[in-house]
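Lab notebook: predicted structure, single chain.

Context: the supervisor wants predicted structures on file for every construct in the current expression panel, including those that have not yet been purified. This is the next one on the list. No modifications to the sequence; it matches the entry in the shared construct table.
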Amino acid sequence: MRLISIALILVLLAACGPSTGQPSSSKQVSAYIQNKGSDTIVNLALAWAERYQAEHPDVSLSVTGGGSGTGIAALVNGTVDIANASRAMKREEKQQAEANGITPVEFTVARDAIAVIVNPENPVQQLTLQQISDIYSGKFNNWSEVGGDDRPIVRLSRETNSGTHVYFLETVLRLGDKTNPTLFSTDTLLLPSSEGIINEVRQNPNAIGYDGLGYVPPDLMNSVIAVARDASGPYVIPSIATVNDNSYPVARDLYMYTAGEPAGAIKDYINWILSPEAQAIVADLGFVPIK
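Prediction complete. Output recorded below exactly as produced.
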């Protein structure tokens, strides 16, 4: 009995003593926010998190990508605080969330232009939305069909869980027509990241890809295609100015979703993201501020 009593006292003392499982730190974290989703937004979200944590050391932020679908699925399942998405939530996704007792709340946190990019060796400099649709659907298979050299077209796209993929399908391939059944050509190469699209376009003289404007590096800016809504023009290069004046036809909002109206540290963080300080970071990274 005496041995049992001593053992219990030792257990209690161990429970009350400092933990040795993690390194000690003088930083007291009062809130932990998990932020997951769109690969388009991930670099912007990381920049926001870094700045915010520097100013609010009591808040810890975890930012990961994986695609808009991945982030939204995590929100639906209740495993993330904020889901990043480069497309709006679908009706069925909202219904799944509500079935789990979660009411998604949408915040527009930035805007983005989708740049269509070709290799620097490609002489094609402008295309209509219909021509881009015909290229990606497989109707056009040679660059000579759109005023280029006699070369095969290599189509590059993000994977299907990407919000950018979904947006490009609905806005460009289907020309905004919800009844249009057009699909990507079956030989389209699906790549897992924005960086993958950029690298392949840079290396392949026959390639065409699309990416968020903020991901286009300086050496490929001259290879960004000017896009027109139809053959009558005008052909417009994507930029902050042409997104804001609505002259560039392939631009979209970028979103964060929370599980219900945010409160506490999450509400404070969302409010900061919408502030002039955070929106200045949006412009610095090549996206379009909402204010």
